[in-house]
Amino acid sequence: MISDKMKRFLVEDENSLVKPANEVAVVGLQNRLNHALLLLTTDKYAVVPVLDSDSKMKGLISMPTIMHAIMDIEDVHFEKLGEIEVGEVMDTDYPSVKEDFELEDVLRMLVNHAFITVVDDDNYFKGIITRSEILKGTNRIAHDFEKVYHVTEKETIAH
Predict the structure, then answer these.
(1) In order of start, what are the domains of the chain with their CATH numbers?
(2) Tens digit of each residue's pLDDT (9 = 90 or more) over 93-123
């Protein structure tokens, strides 16, 4: 369990931990791969959420996923970029938490993912929690924790 004091430094403001949906680049299920490729390369994203027409979370799309979809053993078929829909090739195994998430769960997931999607009980996309936000908190702990708290080592008990 994360102590309240440590949590205070790790997450300065719990509301700021979640980047809201309206500030996150996303693609739709019916968008073609060429659209996703343009978004990923123009804005330099590694991966973006895929939403249906009702803004429900459906998956993730990335450059490797796109490239895998248009390649075979001998060639890259760029013409397929305008033919294949994102929903046909997206990754449907993605990290996600509900709006009432536990910070410990988020930390565990962010070890292996750059961001975690946040959804409500009906799977509507609410935003993302990024690894960089947690690293900002880690930086605060490393630099400022002892400015606020007096830290002493516990005495070692001999067995």
Answers:
(1) 4-148 (3.10.580.10)
(2) 999 999 999 889 999 999 999 999 999 999 9
Q: Say if CB 116 and CB 97 are below 8 A apart.
A: yes
pTM (two decimals) = 0.84
Q: Which two tokens stand for residue 11?
A: 């997450």
DSSP calls for 101-131: --HHHHHHHHTT-SEEEEE-TT-BEEEEEEH
Residue-by-residue DSSP string for 62-113: EHHHHHHHHB-SS-B-GGGGGTSBHHHH-B----EEETT--HHHHHHHHTT-
What pLDDT score does 59 carry? 98
Average confidence (pLDDT) over 38-51 = 92
For tokens 């961001």, name the residue: 115
pLDDT of the residue at 97:
96
Question: Kindly report the CA angle at 150 between 148 and 152, in degrees rounded to 5?
Answer: 150
Q: How far is CA 124 from CA 55, 58, 90, 127, in A?
A: 6, 9, 18, 9
